[in-house]
Design a protein that fits this description.
CATH architecture of the largest domain: 3-Layer(aba) Sandwich
Distance between the termini: 30 Å
Bound molecules: 5-S-methyl-1-O-phosphono-5-thio-D-ribulose
Strand content: 15-25%
Low-confidence stretches: none
Largest sheet: 7 strands, mixed
CATH superfamily of the largest domain: Translation initiation factor eif-2b, domain 2
Length: about 350
Amino acid sequence: MIKTVEYLDGIVRMIDQTRLPLEEVFVDCATINDVANAIKTMVVRGAPAIGVSAAMGVSLGAESIQADRFESFYSELEKKCLPLAKSRPTAVNLAWGIERMKRVARESKSLTIPELKKRLKQEAINICKEDIECNMAMGNFGQTLIKDGSTVLTHCNAGALATAGFGTALGVIRAAVNAGKKIDVLADETRPFLQGARLTVWELMQDNIPVKLITDNMSGFFMRNKQVDAVVVGADRIASNGDVANKIGTYMVAVMAQKHNIPFYVAAPISTLDLSLSSGDEIPIEQRSGDEVACLNNKRITPEGAKIAHPAFDITPNDLVTAIITDRGIAQQSYSTSLKKLAEQ
Ligand code: MRU
């Protein structure tokens, strides 16, 4: 299995997702700020992978604190977490990972400082392991929705690379294949960062899962020609009413799927739910640099000085979502009730 992120002795090692698939190189982060920078620059990306990396980053931050009392240790840890918390705004897993680490620190205040640092390291490793277990559970629930012989369209990369391993949307596909079903995948290229072309295709080819790359403007063609049986995507944040924030372009795919009566499934762990938000309108949408749109392979494709917009995510309203596959089961409308019930389990 691909190791997206790994906690080794004193460093967090990540496969550099900006360089895949042409180069398989790793980046070693020695400090919490190195991890923040890796998240910001998309060396590591995908909501669950960001959450896991953030937790490991908090542990690195804790290791570097010189304090002999819990109060000074904790206030230093909070300060160190600030740049990490700001590294990317949309995926709620970032705040979730940091908050879980801070809660464990507070609950372990009776430990000595060296014991507390060890406890935090263990928690980050647990979060990483749990993420893979969540994805396997999600895969088992989700694969029941996918019929043998299906062609499944996916957008962005919600695979092993976007998580600690196995993937969310690609986890559902992997589980269907493991259950003996014949599945073909259509992967949207996902402009401008090309997560589909670079990462999803790479991952699925490694697993010998049949995959065909299409550009983002082709999905309607394949849907209208009855060549798509289901859509499965991941999520960066899901509001309590089931509105889904995911990679820019997801909304267009969902509208098109509804038009053609194709089920549109979202696969995400419970840690991607943000029940504090009543709707997707409250989810912050990351605006990234126009240069990422203006250039392909570092080559400019539009005139110098052209005005460019680059929202990195969009919101798919809950009425376009057939079901939300979580690690605790499958939620359907009404999401306000079904998601709350799963979160409380
Ligand atoms: O900008 P990215 O690459 O971090 O965006 C990733 C996505 O939108 C994924 O679909 C989402 O995080 C789900 S990953 C399991």
